[in-house]
């Protein structure tokens, strides 16, 4: 009987989730978060994009999701590029390229330390700057030619004191004792000159880099840029970057079209709301007139009552006015014949209209006629 083969794979959901990513190498073509990427950072990017684009609807959220995952994938490419470049800058090809740029020949590459290729301020570079500062302090001591005690030297020239301390054999050995033993000199000036030469010989690479730091760092950056261009010029990298750029443009175009649609809808709503507000204002004005008419005191004069009736009757007649003057005249004559109160109101309205026209267009005073006076004189 054949025994069944037992599977040794993961049994739990977490183990299966981890094993599902075993085939992922760099994750450049993966459209989801991979191991090592923070879910909180992705959520923060997504939330900021939602707030920036005010995308709280389904269309806006889908476009924002596409933007967020595209940004994560681009950052993944940049991280992979940095990792690749950090490794390639520690290869023999990079050192040969730096030797070619610094000294004009590839044969000088073997004498170049690896930390020359580092673009960051590493520990060796900091030590090189300290050694150069110590040598400058030794020159100042050489100019003074004063044999000071260790406490004063440690406070005044700390880098030089620390550098000479590297040659100390016992803790009780003083600064000047170390110089005398190392240089085999007795005078201050000759002793300091000898220690300067010895330090430059022992730490030649450090002193050389510190004195030419700007030039060496610029050459290393140039080598880095050349290898970076070679990496980004590969067809697969160009295809990947173009694909991500197209996804970004698609998401932005969707958000732009969404903003236009929402803007048109908001404009239509604004016009409709303004029309409704205009109609409601007219209705309120009519109701206010009616309330003022209803709440008017009973002890008003006859003219005021006539004017009020005229205004009310005009407000009722104007919306339903016929298109020709004959219809208006006929309707008004019929109203006067049927109701005597309307006749009084009509007469009051004519009086008020004539008085207002007289106020608006006052007539010029007539000149006295001189023709009759002349005829009387002739008689």
Shape: elongated
Strand content: under 5%
The main β sheet shows up as: none
Helix content: over 70%
Question: Treating each run of at least 4 consecutive H or I residues as one helix, how many helices?
Answer: 16
Runs with pLDDT <50, length 5+? 281-292, 296-346, 357-379
Give a topology summary:
Layout: H1 13-19, H2 39-53, H3 58-88, H4 92-103, H5 123-144, H6 150-156, H7 158-165, H8 175-183, H9 188-202, H10 204-211, H11 213-232, H12 235-294, H13 302-317, H14 325-338, H15 340-360, H16 371-378
Q: In words, what does this structure look like?
A:
The chain has 379 residues and is mainly alpha-helical. Among the domains are: 121-202, no CATH class; 305-314 and 333-353, no CATH class. It contains 16 helices and no strands. It has helices spanning 13-19, 39-53, 58-88, 92-103, 123-144, 150-156, 158-165, 175-183, 188-202, 204-211, 213-232, 235-294, 302-317, 325-338, 340-360, 371-378. The N and C termini lie far apart (165 Å). The model is unreliable at 281-292, 296-346 and 357-379 (pLDDT under 50).
What is shown here, in short?
This protein is 72% helix and 0% strand.
């Amino acid at each position: 009987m054949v025994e069944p083969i037992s599977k040794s794979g993961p049994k739990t959901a977490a183990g299966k989730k981890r094993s599902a990513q075993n085939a992922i190498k760099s994750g450049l073509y993966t459209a989801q978060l991979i191991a090592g990427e923070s879910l909180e950072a992705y959520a923060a990017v997504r939330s900021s994009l939602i707030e920036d684009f005010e995308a709280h609807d389904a269309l806006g959220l889908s476009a924002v999701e596409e933007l967020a995952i595209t940004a994560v994938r681009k950052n993944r490419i940049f991280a992979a590029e940095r990792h690749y470049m950090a490794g390639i800058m520690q290869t023999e090809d990079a050192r040969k390229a730096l030797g070619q740029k610094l000294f004009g020949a590839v044969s000088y590459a073997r004498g170049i330390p690896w930390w020359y290729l580092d673009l960051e301020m590493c520990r060796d570079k900091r030590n090189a700057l300290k050694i150069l500062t110590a040598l400058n302090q030794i020159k100042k001591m050489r100019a003074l030619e004063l044999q000071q005690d260790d406490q004063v030297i440690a406070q005044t020239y700390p880098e030089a004191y620390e550098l000479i301390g590297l040659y100390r054999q016992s803790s009780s050995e003083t600064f000047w004792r170390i110089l005398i033993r190392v240089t085999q000199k007795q005078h201050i000036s000759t002793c300091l000159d000898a220690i300067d030469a010895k330090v430059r010989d022992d730490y030649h690479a450090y002193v050389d880099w510190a004195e030419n730091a700007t030039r060496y760092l610029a050459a290393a950056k140039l080598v880095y840029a050349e290898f970076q261009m070679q990496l980004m010029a590969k067809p697969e990298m160009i295809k990947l970057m173009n694909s991500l750029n197209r996804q970004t443009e698609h998401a932005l175009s969707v958000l732009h079209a969404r903003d236009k649609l929402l803007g048109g809808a908001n404009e239509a709503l604004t016009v409709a709301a303004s029309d409704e507000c205009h109609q409601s204002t007219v209705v309120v004005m009519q109701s206010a007139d009616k309330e003022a008419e209803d709440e008017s005191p009973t002890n008003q004069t006859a003219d005021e009552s006539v004017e009020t009736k005229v205004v009310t009757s005009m407000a009722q007649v104007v919306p339903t006015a016929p298109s020709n003057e004959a219809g208006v005249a006929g309707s008004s004559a019929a109203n006067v014949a049927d109701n005597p109160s309307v006749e009084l109101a009509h007469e009051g309205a004519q009086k008020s209209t004539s008085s207002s026209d007289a106020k608006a267009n006052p007539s010029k005073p007539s000149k006295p006629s001189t023709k009759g006076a002349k005829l009387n004189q002739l008689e």
